[in-house]
Specification:
The structure is a homodimer of 223-residue chains. The first copy, chain A, is α+β, with helices and mostly antiparallel strands and 223 residues long. Among the domains of chain A are: 60 residues, Winged helix-like DNA-binding domain superfamily/Winged helix DNA-binding domain (Arc Repressor Mutant, subunit A, Orthogonal Bundle), CATH 1.10.10.10; 75 residues, SH3 type barrels, CATH 2.30.30. Helices cover 42% and strands 17% of the residues of chain A. Chain A contains eight helices and eight strands. Chain A starts with a helix and ends in a 5-residue tail after the last strand. Chains A and B meet through helix 5 and helix 6 of A and helix 5 and helix 6 of B. The structure holds manganese (II) ion (MN) (4 copies). The site of one manganese (II) ion has 5 residues of chain A, from helix 4 and helix 5. The structure holds a DNA duplex (30 and 30 nucleotides).
DNA sequence: ATATTTATTTAGATTAGTCTAAATTTTATT
DNA sequence: AATAAAATTTAGACTAATCTAAATAAATAT
């Protein structure tokens, strides 16, 4: 059995590795988890002893097969619970993450299997992120961000890659949600901001940071 | 914030006090929780400092107003989750307790409020026990056990007062479930066992222990 | 190639929750 | 009432997860 805390380390290692490709540094883990590097070092030794990770002093860390599977299980649970909260319990997409952080650690094979069935085997969560299947496969279709497009492109919002409340509240206040229609009116080279027309109505300015976290699908055939 | 462990102490104090009426002894808590009395003493001091309990050395412990409310909140969550598992996720009544022990500690006002609505505000859980309302009231109608009745009485099973897997598995193997019809054929004074006719079919012998934990409703007007 | 800076690990301390063994208080029995 | 037994608390120790400060290794800059 792993503690909640050990599970959170494994999940964080997975997330950082996913974003960077390579091995995960002690410092990056410490920063992500809001704790000190010395604490991380202790835990890495422990997770290595339990063979969830491959760890060489000073060389960073990678998940073992076992660790990777555990990470995917946790992410599966997290995203299924988020789906449950949005679809069945009237939560907004900006309210689910915190609760899912707790629910993802509940231990019960049957629970998660039945939840999956109850939700009719969803493949993406409320933020547009893929949900690993029971056999831990993820339908990773290529994901495009608003940032990848240019003037005159027409797009539909299908997800976000940052599910912090801060970001999702910002989208709410911009009136951007899943399904919103976006036409790019201008790409400003100066600060990489985007001027867009939203649902053929309001004109809105989007910062680089927002544009890098909005997952969209093109409605025309430009790249 | 209380830890899971602190919450479990409070719940155990509530349960023991509910059964016994009076103040709760260190030893009874230690036994219920499967830990040593010395450990309990430490925790009682801590819960007293946080004013969840009234505690005098050597005199046992009672819940404060604050502690009682917290206990009821936890029990509310436990029983709502059990209801969810049975009604929505195809769990059997003998499978839910262990998972509910985990879920009862999830912190989210909105979650439990919406779960209550989603289940249409149930008043009893799958074992026939009352679910505290959002304002922590419990519709405590008097409960009758099979043990309270006598020869020729006809009863319907509406709950159990022991939700251990051991007991519920035993009921399953006796083919007794919620709604089962029971006619008392014989009350044996020797060992307080009961011979019953089940659903007008099989004849079954029930031990005193089982009879004391089966909650029933009379189908005729005898007491 | 050295020196400096940055990243990481080691050492020692702290808190929560638990234990065993010993001391003390309360309860029960002569 | 005195003694024995039981219940409870105290004392001291352990593990998990964290911290700060110091030491060491790796990376970078001169
Ligand atoms: Mn999330
Ligand atoms: Mn988490
Ligand atoms: Mn239960
Ligand atoms: Mn519990």
């Amino acid at each position: 059995m792993l503690s909640f805390i050990e599970e959170n380390y494994i999940k964080s290692i997975y997330k950082i590795a996913e974003a960077s490709g390579g091995p995960v540094s002690t410092n990056s883990l410490a920063e992500k988890m809001g704790i000190k590097a010395a604490t991380v070092t202790d835990m890495l030794r422990k997770l290595s002893d339990k063979s969830f990770i491959h760890y060489q002093k000073y060389q960073g860390v990678t998940l073992s097969e076992k660790g990777n599977n555990r990470a995917l299980q946790i992410i599966r649970k997290h995203r299924l619970w988020e789906m449950f909260l949005v679809q069945k319990l009237n939560f907004g997409w900006d309210e689910v993450h915190e609760v899912a952080e707790q629910l993802e650690h509940i231990q019960s094979e049957k629970l998660i299997h039945e939840l999956d069935r109850f939700l009719d085997y969803p493949t993406i969560d409320p933020h547009g992120e893929p949900i690993p299947t029971a056999s831990l496969e993820m339908n990773r279709e290529p994901v495009w961000y608003l940032f990848n497009f240019r003037k005159a492109d027409i797009l539909t919002v299908v997800g976000v890659s940052d599910d912090s409340a801060l970001f999702l509240n910002m989208l709410d206040s911009l009136a951007i949600s899943l399904g919103s229609l976006i036409e790019i009116l201008e790409c400003n080279e100066y600060d990489n901001s985007f001027l867009i027309k939203l649902n053929n109505k309001a004109t809105v300015l989007i910062s680089q940071k927002v544009a890098q976290n909005l997952i969209v699908q093109p409605n025309n055939d430009r790249k």
